[in-house]
Structures are given as structure tokens and as C-alpha cells.
Amino acid sequence: MITNGFTYMAVLLFMAAVLVTLEKSAKGGLKKFFKFIPAVVLCYLIAMLLCTLKVWDLKETKPAYSALKNNLTYAMIFAMLLRCDIRKVLRLGPRMLVGFFSATLTIIIGFVVAFVIMKGIIGADAWKGLGALCGSWIGGSGNMVAVQAALDISEADMGYALVIDSIDYSLWVMFLLWAIQLAPKFNKWSKADTSRLDEVSSRLEEEAKLNTKPVTFQSLILLIGCAFLVSAIATNVGAKLYGWTNFSDKATWTVLLVTVVALIAAVTPLGKVAGSAEVSNLLLYSVIGLLASRASLLELGDAPAWILTGFIVLGIHAVLMLIICKLLKLDLFTAGVASLANIGGTASAPVLAGSYSGSLVPVGILMALMGYVVGTPLAVLCARIMAALA
Q1: Is the pLDDT of residue 10 over 80?
Q2: How many CB atoms lie within 10 A of CB 243?
């Protein structure tokens, strides 16, 4: 069993390296396999399996995870945003707002219906734990804590909520990453007009291709150094801003700072430095491996009824989003990122958006930040509705 944090991270990176190498060099049947299950999904799944098999000690490796996960996420966001022109991204228009609040509404409906179905098994007071989880699945961990304080939720109920948040959320992220490949068929089915989305994405990517400067050691170390420094400074400044304002949480402030700095840097010569795609992809796989490395499938044996309740919420959310996508002709990118912006927040929405196209990371960030704003009041409202139905 691995107890050393460096070894733990080394295994995750080596696993990602092997999967990416196999995917890039695959031929014949193996190439078809990777087309169906991309390396990024396998990275998530295998990391979960390794965690389940207790390849590493969760307690001993937690300091390494805590030190790396958020910081690498912030560095990844910075590297990805260097390729983005926010003025062009904003041309996507109100469809993203429609997608986000559609996801929010369907998640709330999912919680209410799931509680009504399962309250005889998980208990009539389960609305408190589910209310806290709703805060997390609309906004983020900060909203979950805020809802816990607002509703005076016990540690036991919070424990159940955290189990659902770990298992169900992890599988949902993996599913959405896998579903990326279905985008063309899905958009055809929903009759979504993706011309504006495709135009913005392709234009940004074409502009990036026009930058024919070679990726060099100098460019890579410059980008990595800048990304890590921005992540470190933003983390410290974000914590201070949170302490001064006591608004939202440290992660929200940090993401805002990283986003602002990156968007400014994108219009400077730094935005033209070759290698930002390579650096951001390296960080992307690192973050995905870390996220999945804490989700042991053994937890499925803990509170199975609660875990099932979480899947009912996600199932209702998915079905209603499919209906909305068909009625409003929304594309899979909008629906998927809107869903994960609610359920995953700033930790994973940019990852999914970046998996579609690095130029679209700001969409994931903006949606996730909206979740932080509305998460607590809407989760408390959802909890009160469930309490009235108890």
C-alpha cells in the first residue's frame, strides 16, 4: 500500500501517461476501443479502481491530495484560459444561462421527488442531509457548509450526504466525460443549432493554430512557472479576500482571481507563447486522476439507500434535461457543462468544458460561479419543500 504522497502522485501520472500513449498509438480494434472509451474516461475509472483496491492509503496520502488538487486545478484553468478571447466566448449568448438554470431546476425537482420516493427507507428527517447535498450540487462545498449551518444538520446526516457526494458525483463526472463523443448524434437528435458554438470554438482554435511557433523547453517552463505562480498567489490572496468579506468561500475568490489574471494575460505576449495546450492537458489529466483517486467503490456498501437516492436525483435530472434539450434545442455541450457546473462546481465544470475545447473553459467557469451565488438560498428552499412533504 502506498503511503508516500510523491509515490501516490507518480502512480497517477504514470497511469495517465500510459493511457494517453496507448490512445495516440492505437490501431485496429484498440483504436475503436479508445474511440468508445477515451483515455480521459479510463483515467478516471482506473484511478477509482485503484482506490477501491487500496493501492494507496487515503489517510496518509491526503496531505498530498489536499496540497495538489486545488492548486493544480487553478494552474490548469490559467493555462487553458491563455488561449481564450473572452469577447468571442461571450457571443455564445443567453443559451448558456438557459442551460444552467434548467439544470438547477431539474436538480431541485430531482431531490424533492427522490425524497418522496425514498423517505420511508432513509427516514423522514433525511430532508436535512439531502438539503445540504442539494447545496453542494447547485453550488459547491461552501454552499453545503452554509446549508448545514442554516438548517442545523447533524454530523450523521452530513456523513450520508458526503458519501453520496463522493460516489454519485464521481460516477456522474465519468459519465459526462464519456458522453462527449456522443455530441454530434445528440445534437442531431435535439436539432440543436451549434453554429454559434462551433464558430466560436473553431475560430479560437484556428487562431491558436496560426501561432506556428514551436513548443520549446523555454516556452514550456515559462508557462508552467507562470501557471503555478498564479495558482499560488491567487490561493493566498483568495483566502485573505474571503476573510475580509466572509462572502461565498475561498475557492470562489481564488477562481475569480485566476480567471481575471488569465484573461488579461491572454491578450499579452504570454498568450502567444506556444505550449499552453500541452501544459493544460498535462494538468487536466493530473486533476482528473486526483479527483477519482479519492472515490472508492467500497463506499457503495455504506448507506446504499442514500446512494440510491442520489442516483434517483441524477436520473430525474438527466431525463428532464433530455426533455428540455429536445424542447429548447439545446446542444450536449451546453447541457453537460450546465449540469456539471451545478453538481461539480469550479472543480470539474472547467475540466469538462476543456475536454470539449480548451477555448471554452470560461463557459464552465462562469456557469460554476453562478452556482455559488444561487446555491445556498435555493438549497434551503429545496430543503423546506422536502420538510413540508416529510
Answers
A1: yes
A2: 10
